Amino acid sequence: MARHLITSALPYINGIKHLGNMVGSMLPADVYSRYLRQRGHEVLYICATDEHGTPAELAAKAAGQSVEQFCAEQHDAQKAIYDGFALSFDYFGRSSSQQNREITQEFARELQANGFIEERAIRQVYSIADGRFLPDRYIEGTCPHCGYDKARGDQCENCTRLLDPTDLINPRSAVSGSTELEVRETSHLFLLQSKLAGEVEAWIDEHGKDWPTLASSIARKWLTEGLNDRAITRDLDWGVPVPADVWPEMAAQGKVFYVWFDAPIEYIGATKEWSDADPANRDWKSWWYEATDVRYTEFMAKDNVPFHTVMFPATQLGTRAPWKKVDYVKAFNWLNYYGGKFSTSQKHGIFTDAALELLPADYWRYFLMANAPESDDTSFSWELFSATVNKDLADTLGNFVNRVLSFSLKRFGDTVPAGAELGEAEAALGAEVAGLLAEYQGHLDTLQFRKAAQALRALWSAGNVYLETKAPWLEIKTDEAAAALTLRTAMQLIHLYGVVSAPFIPASSAAMRAVFADDTAAEPGWISQEQATALEFVPAGTGFAVPPVLFAKITDDDLAAWRERFGAQ
Predict the structure, then answer these.
(1) Which of these, 261, 314, 284, lies nearest to 104 by C-alpha position?
(2) Separation CA 149–CA 171 (nearest Å)
(3) How many whole angstroms separate alpha carbon 92 and alpha carbon 108?
(4) Environment class of residue 507 by beta-carbon count within 10 Å: exposed (0-12), middle (13-18) or buried (19+)?
(5) What does the pLDDT look like over 449-499, one tens digit per residue?
(6) Considering the entire predicted model, what is its pTM?
(7) Rg of the chain's alpha carbons, rounded to an integer?
(8) Rounded-to-integer distance, Cα 358 and Cα 386, Å
């Protein structure tokens, strides 16, 4: 089987992430990873907290902590939430690790040796009130392109345009709020992307032709506008330091690398962290260096696309080393909250910790993937969330499982009934289920998550249609063996649902599989088309137990309380 390397955009360290962050990177990466593992592939899913840069320093200052302490605590807090969402990382690292520091510095040395880094004197904003040069993100103001009044000095969060601090209208210090700013001369290292532009374009031509339109169009837009040289150092106290063996003066001045230089390298750094934890059995280089047998898939929201499709590949190409580059970029649009943006900085929307306080992870996992912002921005509303949960999870799946098991327990006891031989209805059901499973599998293979959710929902619906058509509560009045066959077949569907639903709703899937005494809650293998057609997974006579309600319905009182707590406009 193929070896699959999967990464999702690194969640930034400055606070708990919102649902938009979850659906735009980590959750779809987890769904895909789980699916591939079930299909028998070797999978390495790597992620980490992104801990360097201006916001980390500002957040630590606001919390009254050292940046080291703040980052350590926030890493643990974020990891606990991702565990709550059942994200199946093989390793969740930290960009402040020693491994990432060493690899980032080695990248810089190689780029310098190959003539792709240059030291330049530049004019940079200096805050008189703060007594320091201000890195780009320490400067806020109005975007000259879209008018957003909280744009940062490196990029506008609203329109995603890259900026220089001097582009901002009415700039101010993000540290003190002071407008007493002036421009002074300082020195920084620049990555000479202009010298690599042709190579990057050729690489995108070769590898990006099969990417989703969202990812490829953003990458090509950058190339069309021109790939400019970019400063890759900053005046900060926290970050990967410039190596003194190559740039002694800059190291003495305390220069550190720009967070967007070292953050993508952390994918490699985190893999080495994973490997170093068990070096006898893990080889990080086999995934990243001359890794011709690895298929590498990245998941990210659209604002991260330029850095992963242009800047990081340029960095890798410039080292002249055989680093593994991304094969497929799955990019997402934004999930909005009642038409307005989810925002960590503005604390607008539903955050992942609060979501888990309200309902178990499977509710959120299914809803988010069924409404994933793939082709366009989508909008969260409590009304849509309630309708999806109640119709798909509670009524279609949960009610089917409960009806089948409760009725069979009442009429035939706590073992799977035998009943008659499979008939025409069961043969037709098996063919339908196999076709739907193939459709579902095809959508997951091509990373079309909304379509996959639709196919999964159709699989669940097929069981309900079969149950209503056969009506075992009527059959049992005249033909007990026929009713037993219907219930036995429905139980085969419960087992199938427990297997194939696992990428989306892992906890509920485990509960469905654990219904049967001979089954297991361990992660299952996939179901073949032949097995789906036959619908013979659980033998007659196997013991079973009726599980607690899989999905509770959301009530009007729930909706009213949540709208009041989180706002609904």
Answers:
(1) 261
(2) 10
(3) 24
(4) middle
(5) 999 999 999 999 999 999 999 999 999 999 999 999 999 999 999 999 999
(6) 0.92
(7) 27
(8) 12
